[in-house]
Design brief:
single chain; alpha+beta; Serine Threonine Protein Phosphatase 5, Tetratricopeptide repeat; Immunoglobulin-like; 3 domains; 12 helices; elongated; disordered N terminus; disordered C terminus
């Protein structure tokens, strides 16, 4: 056996089972060959990290050692790290791989089998049933398949959830300690989603009804103006606001020119531009207020008798021959 395999076997035996050859025996082992050096260094790093209880980093180091030079006992080192992390399912997987790869060459099979059995005793068996079909079981948010199912869980807290389309999920939060066999019937219940969607559609249909039907009779009677007034006011408000914005930009530019080169002419130009901007802004605000007032006196209903009469009589015009239908 090469130096690397001797070091792995001795170190593994100490790590897993608490005893092994002395340092003097290790000192007498032959030097590692160059093709085993990287694996030996990675394994030694893993052993150091285990001593520091940095198990996740130790797993990475052991996996690198196994990649450099596969040796079954390295799988036991990985399994032991997972065991210390409380991840018994992964630990059992690596113990089984260790047994499978070293069954014909290891003199420590009995001890490894004992370690595997200790891990298995800490795994909980959970059987999930559901009375409905087309369900999916989720464990801690991860899909596991369709019930009925038997799953294995590590010790700790877990959330079991059975989901089904158009149904309310059935959930169960559990705490496992290892070695139990549990059984749950998780059946989703019919969802109210369809009813809510129908209610939303009914509400949308109600909103499309004539707005006048929801107004007090006294206000409804005052809605006699043509929509042309309202839309004209809205258009003029937009135009006035746009022009005011243009003159506002010009006023700012004139101010910047005056501050850069102070002259009487520049100051007068700035004052003029600011005055025009204020006038236009006030006009836009007045038009917007008038348009908002017109909204409450405008008849937007095409089914209103007065609106129908105006549409049927082209002689009913206002101002620049606008028809009552806009």
């Amino acid at each position: 056996m090469t130096h690397y395999w001797q070091v792995v076997s001795v170190s593994l035996f100490i790590f897993l089972f608490g005893s092994g050859p002395s340092k003097e025996i290790l000192a007498r082992t032959p030097s590692a060959t160059s093709n085993h050096q990287a694996a030996a260094e990675a394994f030694a790093e893993g052993e150091r990290l285990v001593q520091d209880r940095m198990y996740l980093k130790a797993i990475t180091a052991f996996e690198e050692a196994y990649r450099q030079k596969p040796f079954y006992l390295v799988q036991c080192s990985i399994a032991r790290c997972y065991e210390n992390l409380g991840q018994m399912l992964k630990a059992s997987k690596h113990y089984r791989q260790c047994l499978s790869e070293g069954r014909d060459s290891s003199d420590k099979l009995e001890a490894i089998e004992k370690a595997l059995q200790s891990v298995i005793n800490q795994i909980t068996q959970v059987k999930i049933y559901s009375a409905l079909s087309d369900c999916t079981l989720y464990v801690n948010g991860a899909p596991m398949g369709n019930p009925p199912l038997t799953i294995e869980l590590d010790p700790g807290k877990h959330l079991l959830e059975v989901r089904r389309a158009n149904s309310n999920s059935a959930e169960r939060a559990i705490q496992t300690f290892g070695g139990e066999t549990l059984q749950f019937d998780l059946t989703p219940t019919p969802s109210q989603t369809v009813s809510k969607e129908k209610a939303a559609a009914d509400h949308a249909a109600a909103v499309t009804l004539s707005k006048e039907s929801a107004l007090p009779p006294s206000l409804n009677r005052r809605r006699t103006l043509s929509p042309a007034y309202f839309w004209t006011g809205a258009a003029l408000s937009v135009v006035a606001a746009s022009v005011a914005a243009v003159f506002g930009v010009k006023a700012l530019s004139a101010r910047a020119d005056y501050e850069e080169t102070p002259t009487q002419a520049g100051y007068d130009h700035f004052i003029q531009q600011r005055l025009l901007t204020n006038i236009l802004a006030a006009s836009a605000a007045a038009l917007a207020g008038t348009t908002a007032t017109l909204f409450f006196f405008t008849n937007f209903s095409r089914d209103d008798p007065s609106a129908k009469e105006a549409r049927d009589n082209p002689t009913l015009t206002v101002g620049m021959t606008w028809r009552s239908e806009f």
